[in-house]
Amino acid sequence: MTETRGERKERTRRAILDAALRLCEDSSLVALSLRQVAKEVGVVPTAFYRHFDSIEALGLELVDESFVSLRAMLLDVRRSDPAFDDIIDSSIGILVEHVHQQRAHFQFIVRERAAGPLRVREAINTAIEQFEKELATDLVRLTGTTTWSPQDLQILSGLIVTAMVGLAEAILRTPDPGAERAIVEGARVQLRMVVVGALNWRSKL
Amino acid sequence: MTETRGERKERTRRAILDAALRLCEDSSLVALSLRQVAKEVGVVPTAFYRHFDSIEALGLELVDESFVSLRAMLLDVRRSDPAFDDIIDSSIGILVEHVHQQRAHFQFIVRERAAGPLRVREAINTAIEQFEKELATDLVRLTGTTTWSPQDLQILSGLIVTAMVGLAEAILRTPDPGAERAIVEGARVQLRMVVVGALNWRSKL
DNA sequence: CGTTTGAGTGTACGTTCGTACACTGAAAAC
DNA sequence: GTTTTCAGTGTACGAACGTACACTCAAACG
Hints:
The structure is a homodimer.
Chain A lengths: L4 H19 L10 H8 L13 H26 L6 H15 L1 H13 L2 H26 L6 H23 L4 H23 L6
Helix pairs in contact in A: 1-2, 3-4, 3-5, 3-6, 4-5, 4-7, 4-8, 5-6, 5-7, 6-7, 7-8
Chain A binds a DNA duplex through helix 1 and helix 2.
């Protein structure tokens, strides 16, 4: 049992982050108290300050952490890169899988994006915008289209991200696996509709 | 100064609803205390119970109220019903106008849908589903399409609603009018892309 | 006109909150 | 081996919380 000082601190820090993520699962960061977190971790309230200045600061950390998950997902999507016409199915499959595996993180992002402390909301929306931009470049790489204006690509990317965030939200609020399957199937169709629209689109240049 | 007993009660009730809507504008229902509301109204805390059993019950009332606004918007959209090809522009224009006029209501719905008390979240999502169904019947009336399966219509409707909710969210978080104009323009393009996709869609029957 | 009703008051309670302050004790630094 | 550092402790505080209970007093009622 040799544990360095830094290791022990890191362990407590992790415990605080995990406890916070768990505790705000059925409310929100703005309704989460420092004392609840401390009690859940099994530590005295004032010890919280050794790790974070405030609940909001803790929230920003959770945002970063959550988007590391998301970035891992995007890597999975890019890595798959299979035949052209079932890229929709595989991408949605990967998203669904990640939502289940990182359920707490996704729920956190979706909830705090709308209801969190100002800084947290801003951080989340900035990250999502970044996502949209990355997807836009992926789209041009994927389709090699030259008839699309950069603006339209960005707009299409936004539409897709919105639909996928909507899918994640729907999954998170649907406990029944059967109903979830229907929702996922619907999202697949939605994406195909969007793709049909995109294929028949001509940007005004 | 003749004010019946019921009128006075209704006035206080309204004051409570308005105060709650105002107070949770930068947090959430789950972080709103009965005492804050009472203080804002200028009434003693226990008086709250004369009107609502709990903050959650008050929230359900606010949901109903907000969706009355939304329904009025849908009526506006249906009433316009102009030439076929700028129905997108007019609908989005109406949405944008309503978001500004009923800013607090829209903000409330968007926030509490993700972060409110369970019952409130359920009420909001049920209402939005209802919305999707109504839009689906409007779509069939509008296009007279017979080559679409009911499921695909519902799915398309869901996509449009998701995009419009996304637009409302984006407007609500964008203070700068110039940036807002760009966002609205993007939403118009998104909707047109979706329509292009829909026009080229054939349901599998 | 006397009685009832009920919106709003006022006090009082136990709990939880954030945070200030002085502390301990083992790992880290010297 | 002595000193320093610092994650975590323990106590203590004023403020805010939900809610119980007894109340007032004007409108509504019979």
